[in-house]
Specification:
The chain contains 14 helices and 13 strands. With 347 residues, it is an alpha/beta fold. The protein has two domains: 107 residues, Alpha-Beta Complex (Aspartate Aminotransferase, domain 1); 222 residues, Type I PLP-dependent aspartate aminotransferase-like (Major domain) (Aspartate Aminotransferase, domain 2), CATH 3.40.640.10. Strand 3, helix 5 and strand 4 form a beta-alpha-beta unit. The longest helix is centred in the last third of the chain and has 25 residues. The structure holds pyridoxal-5'-phosphate.
Length: 347
């Protein structure tokens, strides 16, 4: 079980299976990497500038920020920090399904017991069910806003209710797709209102730095402290550090990409409406579509045309579903054309 389905040699194919940025990073990122010199490689990196600029971009003081080698590192660190045994028995981590696979993988690796909250029909956020799953052993709650793979938002009141009800737990609000949804717990004093919340961010998606690996955790200083103690001192390599600064300094590229994503989602919705396929309007850069029993065959048919989408039909609540990354409009058009042709062939 691993979220990162590795396509053998995708070559010139269209990668629409991992919610990546299909346009690529800002050209400024490549310029920044090219400008590095020999001693930039030979000296351990200095993070002062990247910490200051990232904190400013996220609207927090640097003391509330931990930079990461990708958000996955933050999931791993938070699991090890939070999931110490409770009275000699495993601590519990709540995962609201369907969820990013890394939560269960990281919680399990840290010795925790995963408590899964099943989805509601149509993926309304199961607030009462999550509250009911809390026990005196709960030490970590993973919430994803907006969710992967459904693209659905979590109401802020639900996050606050869960954080209030679990004061001994770390509530990790994974905002990997926040650049497309615009809703963050950082706004409106959320970190002070909910001191046990830590927000997870990645620069892999909207900023297109997936291969460079750059992410962040944001929280109150005392909440981050146990995580900081586990964080390797030079976890962000120098290319990622300069890339992150350059990406944050190019808001036009981000705006342009967000617009592509919005237009791509509208195209997916229109095609699904025309073909009578159910989908969930998404607050992220992908759409979950119910194509029915033909999901696995459809993914294979598209792969033969070197268009890679993700079969999510095995996930809780996702029977018959595929997930399609919605990035550059031309890529989405190519995918929709191939999907329609494959579905017609199969009919
Ligand atoms: C919900 C969620 N969290 C975290 C990540 C991982 O982010 P990163 O690439 O920064 O490790 C992903 C990547 O797909 C994701 O979907």
């Amino acid at each position: 079980m691993n979220e990162y389905l590795r396509v053998p040699d995708p070559g010139e194919g269209l990668r629409l299976h991992l919610n990546e940025n299909t346009a690529g990073c800002s050209p400024r990122v490549l310029e920044a990497i090219r400008a590095l010199g020999a001693t930039d490689a030979s000296f351990y990196p200095d993070y002062a500038a990247v910490e200051r600029e990232t904190a400013a971009a996220l609207g927090v003081p640097p003391s509330r920020l931990v930079l990461l080698n990708g958000l996955d590192e933050g999931l791993h660190l938070a699991s090890f920090a939070a999931l110490k045994p409770v009275d000699g028995a495993p601590a519990e981590a709540i995962v609201v399904e369907p969820a990013f696979d890394m939560y269960a993988a990281c919680a399990g690796a840290a010795g925790g017991r995963v408590v899964a909250v099943p989805p509601r029909p149509d993926f309304d956020f199961p607030t009462e069910e999550t509250l009911a799953a809390l026990t005196p052993r709960t030490r970590l709650v993973f919430l994803t806003n907006p969710n992967n793979p459904t693209g659905q938002r979590i109401p802020r009141a639900a996050i606050e209710a869960i954080a209030d009800a679990a004061p001994r737990a770390l509530v990790l609000v994974d905002e990997a797709y926040v650049d497309f949804s615009g809703e963050t717990m950082i706004d409106g004093g959320g970190l002070d209102r909910c001191p046990n919340v830590v927000v997870g961010r990645t620069f892999a998606k909207a900023h297109g730095l997936a291969a460079l690996r750059a992410g962040a955790l944001v929280g109150r200083e005392t909440t981050l402290e146990p995580i900081l103690r586990l964080t390797p001192p030079y976890n962000l390599n120098v290319c990622a550090a300069v890339a992150l600064r350059a990406a944050l300094a190019d808001p036009d590229h981000l705006r342009w990409y967000r617009d592509q994503v919005e237009r791509s989602k509208a195209l997916v919705y229109a095609t699904c409406d025309r073909l009578g396929l159910h989908y969930w309007p998404s607050a992220a850069n992908f759409v979950l579509i119910r194509v029915g029993p033909r999901a696995t065959a459809l993914v294979a048919a598209l792969a033969r045309r070197r268009i890679f989408i993700r079969d999510r039909s095995g996930e809780p609540g996702c029977a018959g579903c595929v997930r399609v990354t919605t990035g550059v409009v031309a890529h989405t058009e190519a995918c929709l054309e191939a999907m329609e042709a494959a579905l017609c062939d199969a009919a």
